[in-house]
Amino acid sequence: MPKSLLALAALLASSSALADTLVTNANGIQVDAQGKLERFTGILIGDDGKVKRVLHGEMLKLRDTRVVDAGGRTVLPGLIDAHGHVTPLGFTALQLDLTGTTSLAELQQRLKAYAAANPNARWILGRGWNQELWADKRFPTSADLDAVVSDRPVWLGRVDGHAAVANGAAMQAAGFALNTQAPAGGRIENGLFVDAAMSLIESKIPSPTAAEQDAAFAAAQRIMLANGLTAAADMGTTPDEWAAMNRAGAAGTLNVRILGYAGGIAGMKQINGGKPSDWLYGDRLHLGGVKLYADGALGSRGAWLKAPYQDMPDTRGLQFLSDAQIMEQANAAASGGYQLAIHAIGDAANAQVISTYEKLSTSYGKDRRWRIEHFQIADPADIPRLKPAGIIASMQPTHQTSDRLMAEARLGQNRLGGAYAWKTVEQLGVPIAFGSDFPVESPNPFPGLAAAISRQDLHGQPPGGWLPEQRVTFEQALAGFTRGAAYAGFAERKIGNLEPGKWADFIIVDRDISAADPQAVARTQVLESWVAGKKAWEKAPSAGAERGR
Ligand SMILES: [Zn+2]
Predict the structure, then answer these.
(1) How far is the CA of 378 from the centre of ligand 1 (A)?
(2) 342 alpha carbon – ligand 1 mean position (Å)
(3) Best label site of 31, 89, 180, 446, fewest CB within 10 Å?
(4) What's the mean per-residue pLDDT of the chain?
């Protein structure tokens, strides 16, 4: 191309890049600063990717403006998951998925196809098989896998995560043979490793390369955008994950916003020279906090309870840290200027974390936005302590729908008064942030929105909702996934709703979720996801949205 034409092309490119964008004909829905539903019809977006004006029916006559006709479809601010694990979401999605296999032959067939499609995978990792769904119900063996892939290690987990089968190359790589003895609490049978024996192989799986980290992060971004998530709090960001996110930022392939929380004090010291980061790459990456753990999970009876488990009276679960230890770690983070996000599931763990935050509030002032992650089972007497200590409840509505029967078994009917107590928390004026804990649960926020307003799962169970007095309103649910999640990440001046000066992060969906019943809300399909005024993802015609799992 001659020089003059090149110059003209560059001029055209820059002039179109500098035009404003007007989104019109929208059925816009968001939550205003008072918590009320605000309807809007359009958004004027500046060339900097930020909102210039939100329209409420008025027509703008603008020149040099790109017009995007929303066609009357529903437009929402980009949804924010306040508690996810971003890179693990990508790794999970990139693994061989064996859920639903109906025979060993089908497992072998999927393994063969995956191996062919991933010639550079050093190890082939997969999960999801369940021999109970197979006609002969026989566990797979290493020989079954060797018949398909023998040139590199293969490690395939059972659906419940309590067993996995290794091929010969995996056992060889780990230095084991068919006659190797299992450790206490484990079992090995023809290449099948059960419970404690699984670590024999898992400890030998090489940690991901930088290229593998990049691929997982790219996959996670696609899944987020396909589910309408334009931002997420990343709970437990590792130094390697942080490096991959920065590579994406530098390469211009960071298409979502990541609010990072380092995993533990050691990780905190390694990432970014031991201090919170600036908001990087146009507010797309920030390390502002540290994630700590006060206890385990309810399903494995690791949640730390004030009274013994109903279904195992000799245990109260696991206390991870003494009062002195948790205070020391929290102090190390808070004095370094980090926000704290502490995992607490059981009522004893929640009481310990509240006490810790009450003490920290006196030395560090109130607007530190101390976060409790999950806040799943609380003693009703402790919930009124949140607000005065400046604590945010970061909760996951789909944990409630997944866990309810297990929670009843673990706690008994009389100890559920502070279980997944969203409405009680809300009525006490405690800021709420909603999320999913992906990939533990699906990253799709719409079943979460539906659970928040119904206390029912995707099938409408149980009828009338589980402890239905803890339902929140639609506005409160939407706020939890938008403004509330932004506030919980010190990002409320940047994202969480559409108003002048904030980023034009929004999504277009296939239905008016403010008018739909909960089961219909749960089935919402995302059509387009926009970040900073640019379309970052679009649903392919007649294709289902990509889901995390
Ligand atoms: Zn989590």
Answers:
(1) 18
(2) 10
(3) 180
(4) 93
